[in-house]
UniProtKB/TrEMBL annotation, chains A, B, C, D:
InterPro entries: ACT-like_dom_sf, ACT_dom, Formyl-FH4-Hydrolase_C, Formyl_transf_N, Formyl_transf_N_sf, PurU, PurU_ACT. CDD domains: ACT_F4HF-DF, FMT_core_Formyl-FH4-Hydrolase_C. GO terms for molecular function: formyltetrahydrofolate deformylase activity. The keyword Hydrolase applies. Keywords: Hydrolase, One-carbon metabolism, Purine biosynthesis. The active site is at D233. It is an enzyme of class 3 (hydrolase). This is Formyltetrahydrofolate deformylase. Its EC number is 3.5.1.10. Belongs to the PurU family. PROSITE patterns: ACT. Catalyzes the hydrolysis of 10-formyltetrahydrofolate (formyl-FH4) to formate and tetrahydrofolate (FH4). GO terms for biological process: 'de novo' IMP biosynthetic process; one-carbon metabolic process.
Amino acid sequence: MTEALATTARLLITCPDRPGIVAAVTGFLYAHGANINTLDQHTTDPEGGTFFMRLEFQTPHLDLSRPALEHAFAEVVAERFAMDWRIAYAADRKKTAVLVSRHEHGLMDLLWRWVRGELYTDISMVISNHPDWREAVESFGVPFHHIPVDSASKEEAEQQMLELLDGQADLVILARYMQILSPDFVAAFPQRIINIHHSFLPAFAGADPYRQAAERGVKLIGATAHYVTAELDAGPIIEQDVIRVSHRHTTADLKALGRDIERQVLSRAVKWHLEDKIIPFANQTVVFT
Amino acid sequence: MTEALATTARLLITCPDRPGIVAAVTGFLYAHGANINTLDQHTTDPEGGTFFMRLEFQTPHLDLSRPALEHAFAEVVAERFAMDWRIAYAADRKKTAVLVSRHEHGLMDLLWRWVRGELYTDISMVISNHPDWREAVESFGVPFHHIPVDSASKEEAEQQMLELLDGQADLVILARYMQILSPDFVAAFPQRIINIHHSFLPAFAGADPYRQAAERGVKLIGATAHYVTAELDAGPIIEQDVIRVSHRHTTADLKALGRDIERQVLSRAVKWHLEDKIIPFANQTVVFT
Amino acid sequence: MTEALATTARLLITCPDRPGIVAAVTGFLYAHGANINTLDQHTTDPEGGTFFMRLEFQTPHLDLSRPALEHAFAEVVAERFAMDWRIAYAADRKKTAVLVSRHEHGLMDLLWRWVRGELYTDISMVISNHPDWREAVESFGVPFHHIPVDSASKEEAEQQMLELLDGQADLVILARYMQILSPDFVAAFPQRIINIHHSFLPAFAGADPYRQAAERGVKLIGATAHYVTAELDAGPIIEQDVIRVSHRHTTADLKALGRDIERQVLSRAVKWHLEDKIIPFANQTVVFT
Amino acid sequence: MTEALATTARLLITCPDRPGIVAAVTGFLYAHGANINTLDQHTTDPEGGTFFMRLEFQTPHLDLSRPALEHAFAEVVAERFAMDWRIAYAADRKKTAVLVSRHEHGLMDLLWRWVRGELYTDISMVISNHPDWREAVESFGVPFHHIPVDSASKEEAEQQMLELLDGQADLVILARYMQILSPDFVAAFPQRIINIHHSFLPAFAGADPYRQAAERGVKLIGATAHYVTAELDAGPIIEQDVIRVSHRHTTADLKALGRDIERQVLSRAVKWHLEDKIIPFANQTVVFT
């Protein structure tokens, strides 16, 4: 970790928009010795809309401890503006678990970026309903758990996973995990499960989107990273991208081209989540890139 | 028209794939003095699939008249391979009619490209259910017909349009024409009506796709040009494109950004149609660009 | 003009970065009744770098007149932080002049967007060294001046243009104006001349970039909008975009494809300039889109 | 290898364009039992230009052995049209060597795609002037050779490499190999060395292109895969791509974003080379994708 990262804090705010918010927040931080590096804000409507803000600041010259700063912020600023807020410290590395089935390209891309230092996280484990990727995963020094799932064992399998993940997953990544998670499982990780779906949602939700795309004869195929909610493929979209295709491409070609898009879309979404750049709102996301 | 275009012919073929097609077609053309400029071919499967071919050739040294050439081709080649085929001569300029409602950006872009010589066609008329664009259209020397439509008058309006279009429209372009055409009207112009839909189909079919896109929180918006069939927004896709958007964009912003994509997607599809580069097949298109 | 635009002001700031700037600026505006809609900031380096900020705020509830507000800001905030700053009021519509030679696609696209209300400016005149586009320009109600240029008359022609432009051009757009402007002319409009160059700069600066691109065999062609400086094609870049090409495209094809990219890149750059979203810095631009 | 690939042959032709080429080639192949899967052709000018063709055909029903077929083609067709031609058999897997320096992302991406079966080749070795990637490379079962290079040892190092590569490299990939190869070395692998350059050539040739890009303030950065010739970064371009950047991106950010573009551009170029889809011509390439 660079020195800068060791002392970086991120303040994320959602509140009703009204005059004076930016002045109050930046004035508070300045008064307590925080040095703001970046500030992004967004409002759905200056009159009666919702206001979002993300600040990244340096902590070395703070005149308060972390808890005291948070306590003061709550009392002096947050309450006055009815803020939903949190401060994340970059030094508190998030724990990430990856779930995968047979298609490993997303998983391997994440592991590869992680060892290169592109993703600042601790990958605590990989869980799969297939045994295939044990050796590949363990070669990165990451624990691998094989938890088979069939219709009879599904509830038990989820229970096993929840036990493994307990305290070990600030973020759960579904890198082509092809089992549908129960609403209870999803509820255990609110806005903390990221799925990569291999289509440009809302087109081709559900099974086998590349085959659907080939049948519909679309001229672009895409991928979508989104937070998982109880409704399949319907959660807040974080990132999407597409690539041009033509009549020359078979379903197999679409899958091969799509893998590259999936890898990039997933890795961007994960990186933004780890860097606290995403604020989910209603069924959408504000992404301060 | 350049001299080359005056003597350009295009042969389009669809047939069951089997060995010897290319040799038979090119051998026939060579034997009769046709000089092939471009040849594109595609097969859905070399074993039992469907074969598509487009040849562009020069006619000055043909040893047969056009009718004789076509007759000979039918007898010598087409019958043997059970071909669905046609020859289009570039000099036979296609007639195009444009239908539009309140949003004129697609219409104006087509007219502007047309006067610049980018679209090789005769624009025979513009029909609108609103009177707004008469002056703009007539300034291009193109006849404008205002045919109002309401639920009571719809059948009569379509009848009026059919009379106007009779013999005047090898191609009908729906440049944001917001009335749904009856199956009978559509059947009068099989694979000859191109619609621009302001979304990345099959996402956001139907009304108000930019609002739908804003509500779903997608990170890219798009446009789709397709042949019109009896089922709304479900015909063979010719061309699609997208542009990146974010939480910062309101529905109004999406509309403004989308206009540029719509203009480009529609003009490409129209140009390809006019140049006989598209072969519809099942509910898809083979586009030899 | 919408009511919101009538009361919109934009504050642009460049200064050495140090703690407290955002708090001071937003605190000042809040104290005087300005309601901030959007705030963007950027720093080249929090330690000793240069800081940039753009705020858009509403003026209806200001407790000071415009001059008094500006005076107070200078005294209370700007001096303390050694700011280079300006406030632009959206209601003060900028005057724009367009210079063009033989290729009119950029000019026509600007005029077309302008009449649609997409570009909030007064187009005061079009100047061309060719007489060709007089009728097209005048049909938009815009004055057209034909000022021929040859090597002997160049100085005199520029003098004529400067007289016409005097007080009539907050922005000068070179929409494919193929004469090289003298350093004196350029100096009369610092950071107020936007040129569209038909390549992806710094590749293919100078004459005939599409021919250069065809000869080099590049797989993408592009366009670049930049502020004009004394050095040809070397000023601060505002916007760029590209489109994919292949061996199939002749130089003529590249020109046709390039026109669409040029139109979009130029119109984006002009729109951003008119909305005070660009801060030039050294030989670069900060663009707060 | 799929059964289809085992029996796939590819015929590549370059010759002066004149009537009858396609008929002669396809007639010849049909007569000898070759079943054509795909046919692509291109001409720089139907009158006196250069003609390019690529055919992919199936060999199971050939009535001649490979040598006899080639002999017959030379006599019956190639000589008549003054063709430069070759037939490649997919079953004859090409041997590939990769050269790399400190930046391993291109190398690792190639190895990863290779083990997945995306690149149909035998990777015979990796050579590096640094020892760093030995373990990573050997874990893929690929031999690794460390050949240090400094100004004094350069000639000797190239000699060592040539000995290692002798008979082992139908293709040499420079995956961020930062030593300039001598004209003699390059001449040993005509049109068989592919380099990935980390800019959109011809912009930012030479050293440190991301720093150059940051200094010039471009709004897109790119990567270029090209065949290596004696002149640095000036050989025929195979593939290019770009990604959007802004003032927010430091040189370090450009490098991180650029890595993804480099990986994709390089892997596409390598795949096309391995599938005999590229015909170099003058200083350009015809790529039949």
